[in-house]
Design a protein that fits this description.
mainly alpha; 2 domains; 75% helix; 0% strand; globular
Amino acid sequence: MPESFVLVQWLNACLMGIEVRAFESIGLSPVVAAEKAMGINRAFALELLVAGGLITYFLLVRVFLSVEKANPAQQIAEILHEFIGGQAEQVIGHGYERFQAFVTCIFLFVLINNLSGLIPGITAPTSSIMVTLGLAVCSFIYYNFHGIREQGLIGYLKHTAGPIWWMAWLIFPIETVSHFARILSLSVRLYANMFAGDMLTLVIFSMCPVGLPLLFMGLHIVISFIQAFVFMLLTMIYLSLAVAHGDDHKRSPAEDVF
């Protein structure tokens, strides 16, 4: 079935040739290369659209930044900055400012992708496991990078060995598995909630196209905000654990709750 989404058609027209040539460069015939080329799907195209929209928004806020007369876009940015900054200060603590830009982008990116499912004919990109897995891997790489950067590789690995040296042989593999399980936890939680929300809204629309769907659309909005907040909060918690030193490295109660 031909793709009806104009953005997907345009991206594939621009990039499909590059993908085919890449396969041909490793020895595949043009026919086989064309068959293996996957192209851009709708979820990825929507992600690019959301990312481009956020970049444009923040650039416009920066260009028209005013201390005396803040425009509505700047006021929204300031509210987000204060809200997310307050959360980061509570969870991460000292030095949270250097991580605030990342967690803000995570929150807005997940939220807008979640809300895009309200547009008729559009499925939220976050209802695809590949999208949520990509977001989880980005968060995983980010907090591990800063953990190693803050404490060094050896110091960071000591966290997974436990406080008792002679139990390290047992604690290390358990903590390592638990550590990588965070990727699964982040990705599946977001995917499952948004996929279920999209399917439920679709079923209600097909059964009762007037009136009742508005209630489920409101529920979808609430779930979208909650899931974006949880994803951001867990990223903050993992960051706080990664950059903590010595006795400060303790499991957060919030990590067990979520």
